[in-house]
Amino acid sequence: MSDEVRSEQSPRSVMGWLGLMFFLLGMSPGFYVPALTNLLTEKGFSSMIIQWAWLAGPVAALVSPLCVGALADNRFAGEKVMAWLGLISSVLLAAAFLVLDLGLPPWMFVVLMFLCAIVSTPMWSMLATISMVHLRSGEREFPIVRLGATFGWALAGLLTSYVLNADGSVLSGYAAAAVKLLGGFVAFFLPSTPPPGRSRSWRTLLGLSAFRLLKERDHLVFFSVTALWSIPIAAFYMWAPRHLAELGDQRASATMALGQVSEVVSMIALAALMTRFRVKTLLTLALVLSVLRYALFAWSGMVGTRTGLMIGISLHGFCYTFYFITAQLFLDRRVPIEMRGQAQGLLSLFSNGIGTLIGTVLVRLWYDYAVVGDHGSWTTYWTLLAVVIVVITIGFVLLYRGVTPDPDSG
User: Fold this and answer.
1) pLDDT tens figures, 12-59
2) Cα dihedral: 279, 362, 212, 346 (round 10)
3) How far apart are CA 261 and CA 273, in angstroms?
4) pTM of the entire structure?
5) 3-class DSSP state for residue 51?
6) Which of 83, 275, 330, 342 is spaced 20 to 30 A from 91 at the CA atom?
7) In Å, how far are 45, 272, 319 from 287, measured between CA atoms?
8) Dihedrals phi, psi of 152, to nearest 5 degrees
């Protein structure tokens, strides 16, 4: 992107608007995502319906981030795309929770959640792309503005539990929709980000050109591991709140916000670590910490207390930041400018799409067998997921070379 685009706003103003947008973008799901399983359970929904509600995001991530990223790379200004996605998805989200409020058939809620996810899922990769364009030093400044989402998510969890008392209420969804609506309006004030590319081919506009990144060995290993790792970690927000509730935690949304507290620390640390350690080291650390997190969950199930869960939840910020934020910065350095939006969309497709889609189904089936069917209960449930991540970690360490065109980026 040209210097002219970068200089439209002062650096402080750019960081301020980006930080605010991340804050609102993180706050919206922070209201309802940690509460969703417990809310639907209290409504009497089966684990199958709960699974379908959680599948909305993964299915959307299979298509929309890549396509929207390609359009922003080649056709439309990024900030306008962000704005309209926010406004439309806020209406759909409010409608979904209205369905629950009125006691309408569950399939209506699921359909509206799918539509909302298709519209809103690309917002994360889009905002990351806009940030990389305008920040002077992505490695130092992106983790700082990205902290806005962390603070937003954590604040939403606390408000849900302690102010709105909405851990089992549709009020959490209404609050999320209101914040998403506000985010849509704020997006119009983001730095102007015109499309850097000019391609008009259908292959490019559908985002299919991004798949050529997989021709490079390290890219193929990285995206494959991302998809595989996303399978077991799909259980974190889906079933950890349920485990907390069964252990007597009536404010699971607030407890889950412990992950955002550690995310603050990890975001600050990442700005320094990215200049001292290889990408492979940080990604491996994230995988190892994920094993430890689920091992602590399993221990909590064995002893019947929340201690292991709370410590494990506190590791979430390090797991997420050291993997996905490192990955976003890694891709920004590795791909041509006209493909950055598509590359971020491809990351979303493999993580939030393919991996989480498969994971949502498998971890639900595993939940029905281990927990509902009482075949080892929560201890067995989390132990198997930890073992799966161990295997994935070993594969990554052995297969990822870290040999790149830019010697500083591997």
Assistant:
1) 788 889 999 999 999 999 999 988 988 998 888 888 888 888 888 888
2) -70
3) 19
4) 0.75
5) helix
6) 342
7) 33, 20, 7
8) -65, -45
